[in-house]
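Minutes, project check-in
Item: structure for the 407-residue chain
Input as provided by the requester:
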Amino acid sequence: MTTFEDLKWRGLIKDISSEELEEKLNKGGMTFYIGTDPTADSLHVGHLSSFLISKRLQLAGHHPILLVGGGTGLIGDPRPTTERAMASKEQIEYNFNKLKKQVEDIFGFEVVNNYDWIKDINVLDFLRDYGKFFNINNMLNKDIIRRRLENGITYTEFSYTILQALDFKYLHENRGVDLQCAGSDQWGNITSGIDLIRKATGDEVYAFTMPLVTDSQGKKFGKSEGNALWLDKEKTSSYKLYQFFINVEDCMVIDYLKIYTFLSKEEIEELEKENNAHPEERKAHKALAREIITFLHGKDEYDKAVSLAEHLFSNNFKDLSKRDIEELFATNDIKEVSCNKNIVDFLVDMQVVSSKREAREFVSNGAISINGDKVNDINFIVDDSCFIDDTYIVVKRGKKNYYIGKK
């Protein structure tokens, strides 16, 4: 397939500014940019699809530039409902530096900061050199603006589209950028940039957008939705990424393989056949988790995530480290506990059971395990030897209930 055909097959093309762009994408040699504002100190899986598109374009012979909006981040892209809370300059600068390093480490892209060229523009030059090219009626018709008119929108947010258009013009004139790609929610801002460049310079530039990636409920991946999966493994561990992608719905896994991996059309279609024939084997899901985690964090992190999953499945934790326990049970409540106690008293103190009678019943029935070992003796003593790395103890009640104690 050509580059454009591959992007279409993967479902990565939504809006396109010109039919000429298909040939240009196939030919290679364009300098393009993608942008993100430093509203957090890490990218998340919601960003990953567009960054992987940029990687695909790079492999097809195009040159990527990543713009991290240290300037536009101080203003804030309009949200569909309410105005964003403004971040401090110090926070924006901190986030920029973190994102710059992350992108360079993972993708190897060149990173620029629009604060470098926006900061020196005074208000008169802004209005004379840029504002005069924007028709208010057209701006009001932008989808994101129109949705905010009923409840009101500040001039600060209203002017964001001009700043993003300014970025496109600056990069076109100073870095030879002739293409912008972004999520479909940015189409209005992107076309503002195309119009500005055409009116101010007479040059023709191009753009395309990709559909926003959502889960099966139609929610996009992002921190505003409360389901962010961060690319920083200190914020979202490789194990947590593994658990998420290994458990995605069957109806979404093939779409995600197309979007998030570099597997070929033939490989993905084979996985689709196997998924339809033997969904219980979850080969497509395992391939998805493997490709994403290996790309982001390396094979060792993927192997570690698989190992932790196998330990959880086999209910065997004795050879793990305290760091492993923290990754496995990050969402569990961890209770401070003391040791050298009878198992009955210990279970009550950890709130695994509601009474000593209940504790004795669970122990006698073989429903309690510690670090994977069954405990069926009500006289068992929980001592220092029961704590992993002299720190954590994992108590399991029944088939699925885990309780984590910490000395």
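Outcome recorded: Residues 217 and 252 are 11 Å apart (CA to CA).
No further action items on this chain.
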